[in-house]
Specification:
By secondary structure, this protein is an alpha/beta fold. It has 14 helices and 14 strands. It is elongated and about 85 Å long. It binds adenosine-5'-triphosphate and magnesium ion.
Amino acid sequence: MKEIILIKLGEIVLKGLNRQSFEFALIRNLRRRLEPLGKFDIREAQSTIYVEPLEDGIDLEAAAERVGKVFGVIAFSRACMAEKNMDSILKTAADYLRDQLSTISSFKVESKRSDKHFPLKSPEISAAVGEYLLQQFPNLHVDVHNPDLEVRVEVRDFGAYIHGKALPGAGGIPVGTGGKAAILISGGIDSPVAAWQMARRGLELTAVHFASPPYTSERAEQKVVDLLQKVSEYAGRMFMFTVPFTRIQEEIRDKCPEEYFTLIMRRFMMRAAERIARKEGCSALITGESLGQVASQTLQAIVCTDAAAMMPVFRPLIGTDKSEIVAMARKIDTYDLSIQPYEDCCTVFTPKHPRTRPEMEKLLEAESALDSEALLEDCVNRTTFRKITAYR
Ligand code: ATP
Ligand code: MG
């Protein structure tokens, strides 16, 4: 039995004239993700993408799991190819779905015939398949309203397909069709989720992480690498830039009032990230901030942080509760990594009483004690990078 994966496209089909470039991007992303598993033919026809293994022994289970994480895939199913005659369709349906059909009690058949030369019309195909399955599986009866299984048969130009269960895909639009943005990534729960959300809207990602050795450990940086690896199962490959932040943090600690420490530090993060983002061809920054979650995420604090960046800053989690963010982190499987206890540079030298209603003028005055340009230049120059790819 020859099995393939059929993919239903999501919002892409609404893209009018741009549709083709969206489809190309999706097919390219699928190719990249599946290539390590073996040779596949991936092509589009009649608003469906066909993923057909071209070698024996390909792990289709693993392929399906990867397909389910590619943005732009709204739903997908594994399907079995049959020859375009009723005899083959009936036998294939019974064989392919045998395990499921033997354990349930009701079913219905839905057929679609896009090849109008096929001698039977769709309702006739459904009736024939239904009758045959009733004969083969005495445990079954037909229930058109609430069946345990909907058996789907499609007769297309180049073959007939019996579908297995349709599964939801990751949704969104293909990565790379929306431009490029830099995610400020910590080892926390929020920023990996923010990265995932924006990649889901078609953005290609570059990651920027601030590390403060020896206050933060190598293990803390490795945690971020591991997190990004998870994100890249969805978002595709990316570069991670690690910015040495110790000097800046020590300068702020030594020269600025404690209550403004965190905000000044965050403004430096924005500026340094922006410089790297620009070099990498990004047009926006992304953070995992959520309004009111901590002192540096009050409205007034965000106004001050935002003012340090020239690029738009996307904060996809701004209106999201922590419990909802946690649920998303679990769904994309970053949560268990995020809760590993390693210091983040944000928690080094945290003030006892941070300002929740900072004043811009005082902040700027405090900042003027620093040689910002030299500090930024220095940390950006010492930035290192590595490549992150999914499925090591
Ligand atoms: P997260 O769970 O994403 O760390 P948080 O609730 O802990 O968020 P903060 O630590 O104040 O909040 O950070 C807010 C945002 O600033 C993060 O979501 C992230 O985008 C960015 N950020 C914080 N620390 C770092 C870091 N070390 N490197 C890069 N970006 C960071
Ligand atoms: Mg954090």
